[in-house]
Design goal:
The protein has 14 helices and 15 strands. The protein is an alpha/beta fold. It has two domains: about 190 residues, Rossmann fold (3-Layer(aba) Sandwich), CATH 3.40.50.2000; about 160 residues, Rossmann fold (3-Layer(aba) Sandwich), CATH 3.40.50. Strands 3-2-1-6-7-8-9 form a seven-stranded parallel β-sheet, with helices on both faces. It has a six-stranded parallel β-sheet with strand order 12-11-10-13-14-15, sandwiched between helices. Strand 10, helix 7 and strand 11 form a beta-alpha-beta unit. Helix 7 crosses helix 12 and helix 10 packs across helix 13. The radius of gyration is 20 Å and the shape is globular. It starts with 7 loop residues before the first strand and ends with a helix.
């Protein structure tokens, strides 16, 4: 990368370890680009810390003052001033968001930035939805307008996001990337279904467990692994109580957060990965690509635009309506009849379109273009 890496800074929020952070960190590591992280570094998983140390990229940590709706928030004006002055040392900021309030304020200071837009903000509470709508129309829209380039993970996401549609002339597709050379299929296909993600209601894990309960009646060996950090503790407790009440403790395993290598070990011998999202909080899902690289079939709800595009193009899984546990149970049973057929198609597609070598070439060209302008 040479001159490019010294001119560009990656800027991300880190309220938790999710798809946004995963993609931004891996991209920065591969391109040797310094990283500005706003959040609590003591809550960052050890495997992420080790990855950053291993690549020896510069990481600047800014301690948050507090959090609002699981989002880092800074209230001290002096810190804003210092960060804004620091951002001016770089020719281009590669911003991953949305990062409500903090990101919007910092990027107003005449920064030249690329905005990789990961998801639409969608909240459950009615009052909070009003606040989110005000934010989206006032701050977010202005941040999108000021960006030199906006990127999104799929064509469907660009077409369906009410905020990206307004700026479609400058929105480019930036595929999510996976290391297909290290994610090699084993073709074991044990009677095991896997979910990977934060434990929050928006992910639809309760729907998945109900569907699994139906599907497992005709496959007594079938097990469900729910992998992810319990972010919403009330929801986590509700899931545990349901599993206990239904007598599923030996069949549904709630692992909590697992380091990536251990998560991959569970995934590579499974038969299906499920993304049962019930809201638009997910626009894609890196784990879908990781599973596909391992030749693991996938099931997703139609509400996730990137997943819908992946399954339609790769024919590596089944799409179902959000919240429909009957449809999900039937999809599980259908794929379990021949998971290898779905898996091979997924592996072939991801190698051609989502390998990190392809993604980094796209990003390098984008950086060069913005630097020239």
């Amino acid at each position: 990368m040479g001159y490019i890496s010294s001119s560009i800074l990656t800027f991300i929020p880190f309220p938790y370890h999710g798809g946004l952070q995963e993609f931004a960190i891996k991209l920065a590591c591969r391109l040797r680009i310094p990283l500005l992280v706003i959040g609590d570094k003591y809550s960052v998983p050890n495997d992420v810390i080790e990855e950053l140390r291993g690549h020896r990229i510069k990481v600047y940590w800014i301690q948050q003052d507090l959090s609002m709706l699981r989002n880092p928030l800074i209230v001290n004006p002096k810190i804003y001033y210092r960060i804004a002055r620091f951002l001016k040392e770089y020719d281009v900021i590669h911003f991953h968001g949305p990062f409500p309030i903090v990101g919007d304020i910092l990027l107003r200071n005449n920064a030249t930035f690329i905005f990789t837009y990961h998801y639409d903000i969608e909240l459950r509470n009615v009052a909070l939805r009003v606040i989110a709508s005000a934010y989206n129309h006032l701050l977010l829209s202005e941040t999108l307008r000021k960006a030199k380039v906006v990127t999104a993970s799929s064509k469907y996401f660009i077409e369906e996001s009410p905020y990206l549609k307004r700026f479609s002339s400058k929105v480019k597709i930036l595929p999510l990337g996976v290391d297909t050379s290290s994610l090699i299929p084993t073709f074991k296909y044990e009677p095991k279904i896997v979910f990977v993600g934060r434990i929050i209601p928006e992910k639809g894990i309760d729907v998945l467990i109900r569907a699994f309960e139906l599907a497992s009646r005709s496959n007594l060996e079938l097990k469900l692994f729910v992998i992810g950090k319990p972010v919403d503790l009330r929801y986590w407790s509700h899931l545990r109580q349901y599993i206990w009440r239904k007598g599923l403790r030996d069949k549904v395993i709630l692992t909590g957060y697992l380091p990536r290598d251990k998560m991959i070990e569970v995934l590579k011998s499974s038969s299906i990965l499920v993304l049962p999202s019930v809201t638009k909080l997910d626009s894609f899902g890196i784990v879908l690509l990781e599973a596909s690289s391992l030749a693991i079939p996938i099931i997703s709800t139609t509400i996730v635009p990137g997943a819908r595009e992946l399954i339609e193009k790769a024919q590596n899984g089944i799409l179902i309506p959000p919240g429909d546990h009957y449809a999900l149970a039937e999809a599980m049973k259908k794929i379990l009849e021949n998971p290898r057929e779905y898996g091979l198609r997924g592996r072939e597609y991801v190698v051609k379109h989502h390998d990190w070598n392809i993604v980094t070439q796209i990003v390098q060209q984008m950086y060069k273009l913005v630097l020239q302008v």
